[in-house]
Design goal:
By secondary structure, the protein is mainly α. It has a single domain, classed as MetI-like (MetI-like fold, Orthogonal Bundle). It is 65% helix and 4% strand. The protein contains 14 helices and 4 strands. The chain has a two-stranded antiparallel sheet with strand order 1-2. Strand 3 and strand 4 form a beta hairpin. It is globular and about 70 Å long.
């Protein structure tokens, strides 16, 4: 009786052996090594330097000034109750995570409807996808001038009452207190308006990803579900949605990282009070009001890095677990 080879050996035997000459190997090494070197130089080395600088005190406005080691002083400063910036910014980033997750669900719903080949589906796809080709900074400029403007904005034209300063109104829609903070946290009106502008872009982006995933779902699975008596919701929940797991993982990672690294659209609105996020704290500590605090800005950046890297590790681990 023939013995079965281990799964890894069977996969290796099934792969076609590539015959590479010396020139091919040189090009292959160059195509791998050059992007890897750029990624290391532009991403990981600055990230590691940020971690190192977070334990120092240095005035970047005077590049020749001495760099002083201060241990964990910068972290004590940003996490102390006397710093009223970190926790409101983290709360806004958390709100963004929740909001963009809801927007992702809406994008998935639109993709599912458009996958039904309704009349004019290509026109709808173009309309929904149009904001995706714009950067968040451009989206911010568009909404600030055409939608949020107090004097000539579209929202105030259709608003029945007095004109509203959508960008400048930092009054809280709701507030709550935490036992370790001496000030309340809450969602400001201008940040709520910013959420609408971000949804305009994010929904179309997620819709396109799910449309691509839905095209790859085997129609025989849908037909089998219909034969078994599944209605539309049961077919989606038990057959289609599980088939979209690879897309779901990517969407979750993109949504969380997009929410945590949000900065462009806030900067385009001139960073009104109440819309602070972690990205604005990092920038302001280096270049904005109160600039020259590289250590404090780096500490904010490390907090942001730690929040992002957890989801990156989860995604990479999930990917390698499937391919192992």
């Amino acid at each position: 009786m023939a013995t079965r080879l281990p799964a890894a050996k069977r996969r290796g035997a099934a792969r076609k052996k590539l015959s590479l000459n010396r020139s091919d190997r040189i090009w292959l090494v160059a195509m791998v090594a050059f992007p890897a070197a750029l990624h290391l130089l532009l991403v990981w080395i600055p990230a590691l330097l940020t971690v190192v600088l977070s334990f120092t005190k240095w005035n970047n406005l005077d590049p020749f000034s001495a760099i002083e080691y201060v241990a964990t002083e910068n972290y004590r400063i940003i996490f102390t109750i006397f710093d009223t910036n970190l926790f409101p910014a983290m709360f806004n980033n958390f709100v963004l995570v929740i909001w963009l997750t809801i927007c992702s669900a809406i994008g998935m719903l639109l993709a599912y409807l458009l996958d039904k080949e309704v009349a004019g589906s290509r026109i709808y796809q173009s309309i929904y996808y149009f904001p995706v080709v714009l950067s968040l900074a451009v989206v911010g400029f568009i909404w600030r001038s055409t939608m949020f403007s107090r004097d000539r904005g579209l929202l105030n034209m259709v608003w029945p009452g007095e004109p509203i300063d959508w960008v400048g109104d930092g009054q809280k829609l709701f507030e709550f207190s935490l036992p370790f903070l001496d000030f309340p946290l809450g969602l400001s009106r201008n940040f709520a308006a910013l959420l609408v502008a971000m949804a305009w872009r994010h929904i179309g982006y997620i819709m396109v990803m799910y449309l691509a995933g839905l095209k790859a779902v085997d129609n025989s699975l849908k037909e089998a579900a219909a034969i078994d008596g599944c209605n539309e919701w049961q077919s989606f929940r038990q057959v289609i949605f599980p088939s979209l797991k690879p897309i779901n993982v990517i969407v979750i990672v993109i949504t969380v990282i997009e929410a945590l690294r949000a900065y462009d659209i806030v900067a385009a609105l001139n960073e009104p009070r109440g819309t602070e996020v972690l990205g604005t704290l990092v920038t302001n500590a280096l270049l904005g009001e109160g600039a020259g605090r590289v250590g404090v800005g780096s500490a904010y950046g490390v907090v942001l890095l730690v929040l992002c890297i957890g989801f990156i590790i989860w995604y990479v681990a999930d990917h390698y677990r499937k391919t192992a």
